[in-house]
Amino acid sequence: MTEETVLFLGDSITQGGDWATWFPGVTTLNFGVAGNSSEDVLARLDTVVAAKPDEIVLLIGTNDLGMRRNVEQLVRNIQSILVDLRRDLPGSRMLVQSVLPRGREFADRIREANIHLRQFAPTVHAQYLDLWPTMALEDGELNPAYSDDRLHLNAAGYEAWLTELRPALERLRDEPPMSRPIQAIIFDEYARPGS
């Protein structure tokens, strides 16, 4: 039996992960690229599809907000990423993670984006992992114990993330793989806040 392939997709936070050490027993692919926004990830999905991973772990969006992109644009891009991956990799299991907290001035926009992502994930048979309770202070600031610059994770930050990610990946593996692509998905989640 061949090893499962887990592809970690995102920006510098993903790129900085020591995935092969943290997840022995599976083949890990680090598709984190520093500075990437959701638009950048969308533009390079063909490389993800070509890798044919068994599982895709997505963390993206903080750079969009740093570039002053609005929440709607961010959410729609992540929805497009998930729809395209589900269409092109119908058998892959997907885990979408909440946008991580950063400086408290970003908190309201990140919370808003995460509400929509949590609602949308099931429509493409993706699991959703809410990292906010573990990583954020009450005011929405990234816990300063986990970051030296209110954005990137330090060793303690990665360890805190892994305490949530490891069990989430176990749950993901318990899910049966998809057998066929989803035909049509309507992007109406953003239009119905609070639903």
From TrEMBL:
Q: Which Gene Ontology MF annotations are present?
A: phosphatidylcholine lysophospholipase activity
Under which name does UniProt file this protein?
Answer: SGNH hydrolase-type esterase domain-containing protein
Which InterPro entries does the protein's record reference?
A: Ester_Hydrolysis_Enzymes (IPR051532), Lipase_GDSL_AS (IPR008265), SGNH_hydro (IPR013830), SGNH_hydro_sf (IPR036514)
Any Gene Ontology biological process: lipid metabolic process
Q: Out of the domains of life, which is the source?
A: Bacteria
The record's SUPFAM superfamilies line, in alphabetical order, gives: SGNH hydrolase
Any idea where the SGNH hydrolase-type esterase domain is? Answer: 8-160
